[in-house]
Specification:
Elements: E1 15-22, E2 25-32, H1 38-43, H2 51-66, E3 71-77, H3 84-88, H4 91-103, E4 109-118, H5 119-123, E5 130-134, E6 138-140, H6 144-152, H7 158-165, H8 169-174, E7 180-182, H9 193-212, H10 216-229
Parallel strand pairs: 2-3, 3-4, 4-5, 4-6, 5-7
Antiparallel strand pairs: 1-2
Helix pairs in contact: 2-4, 6-7
Length: 238
């Protein structure tokens, strides 16, 4: 059953979510929605949420915690909407509250990057206990074109930027930022949506089984340690 609206301003179609049953387990699901046809993409703002979208996500997070249901998030956005209307309604605050809620939400959280994960717009629903990523998905703080424009004043160097940023699933897995890479069907996930959905369901259920076996305090402590390790490094002696 889909939940709509943020009870403050409006409903944002760029984020959808609600109650669901996954393999016999009741869960709360939320994620970005881009749309497929041009009309749908315009309606969903190309998957770029406004503050009301993130506040709707907050409602879903609190719902999962209240009823002790696992939270599953699906990430697929180029980033949060950067327009002036979003800034006027508190875009950065809405994202910050999402990060705060997820970091201490008292229920298991599994996130999956199913397409692109762009900047804080993706991270707002990506703080989790397990992060999965489709084989050909990407996850980064900025687009390769944007990075190239900033560093070299030349967007044509996007490939060089992408290689330096390590935005692919296997690069992120090697750096310990992603827990698991899910293989896609031949030609990509969009070629066989049902097969990809089945693969995601199996993987999510496996991760939830492990997470639900943990005591709540242990779950939260592991999540906290996970967050502390982001960006950590070790110096190797000369």
């Amino acid at each position: 059953r889909e939940l709509k609206g943020d009870r403050m301003f409006a409903d944002d179609p760029a984020i959808i979510g609600g109650l669901a049953c996954l393999g016999g387990i009741s869960v709360v699901v939320l994620g970005h929605q881009k749309g497929r046809e041009t009309r749908d993409k315009l309606r969903h703002n190309f998957g770029m949420p406004k503050p009301e979208g993130y506040r709707k996500a907050q409602r879903l997070m609190k719902l999962a915690e209240r009823f002790q249901l696992p939270l599953v998030t699906l990430i697929d956005t180029p980033g949060a909407y950067p327009g002036i209307v979003a800034e006027e309604r508190g875009q950065s605050e809405s994202i910050a509250v999402c990060l705060q809620l997820l970091s201490r939400l008292r229920t298991p959280i599994v996130s999956i990057v199913v397409g692109e994960g762009g900047s804080g717009g993706a991270l707002a629903i990506g703080v989790c206990d397990r992060l999965l990523m489709l084989e050909y998905a990407v996850y980064s703080v900025i687009s390769p074109e944007g990075c190239a424009s900033i560093l070299w004043k030349d967007a044509s160097k996007a490939q060089t930027a992408a290689e330096a940023m390590k935005i692919t699933s296997h690069d992120l897995l090697a750096h310990g930022l992603v827990d698991r890479v899910l293989p896609e069907p031949l030609g990509g996930a969009h070629r066989n949506v049902r097969e990809m959905a089945d693969t995601i369901q199996v993987a999510v259920l496996e991760e939830l089984q492990q997470l639900q076996a943990l005591e709540l305090d242990e779950l939260l402590d592991k999540r906290y340690q996970r967050l502390l390790e982001y960006g950590s490094f070790e110096e190797i002696g000369a």
